[in-house]
Amino acid sequence: MKLKFDVYAKIARPRAEVFKAVTDPKELSAYFATGGASGPLREGDTVRWKFAGFDGEYPVKVTKLVPNERIEFCWETNSGGYDTQVVMSFESVDAGTTLVRIAESGWREDPAGFLDSYGNCGGWMQMLCCLKAWVEHRINLRQGFF
């Protein structure tokens, strides 16, 4: 069995606004990477995300970026030693609503990979909830969370 998941949420804002909230380091740092994002997401770049309440930095290696449509990156698993692939897609439902999907795959099929995949699945679902609260209402759900 391949370890992978796909989570999604509708955000009541236009696609360009939602995409910017993910790629712009100031925006992303306000609701998700609350310890800071070192730069904007751009194809071919590696940026570092920090999360308040968690030790260390997480290098995000952007492998593909199609503005307002898709972001692909890889990053190291929590247990270390190899990368997983993350794909974020942005689809207009109507003029004011965007469907955001996040899929991640590539874990080893062992106990550590199983735990890492479950942890990231929950983390990405939380990211979508935080994104929705931030973009729609300017509320930072992560503040004081951890």
Description:
- It is built from 3 helices and 7 strands; from the N terminus they run βααββββββα.
- β5 and β6 form a beta hairpin.
- The longest helix is centred in the last third of the chain and has 27 residues.
- By secondary structure, the protein is of the alpha+beta class.
- α1 packs across α2.
- Helices cover 29% and strands 36% of the residues.
- A 7-stranded antiparallel beta sheet has the order 1-7-6-5-4-3-2.
- It has a single domain, classed as Alpha-D-Glucose-1,6-Bisphosphate, Chain A, domain 4 (2-Layer Sandwich).
Which structural traits does this protein have?
Alpha-D-Glucose-1,6-Bisphosphate, Chain A, domain 4, 3 helices, 146 residues, globular, alpha+beta, seven-stranded antiparallel beta sheet
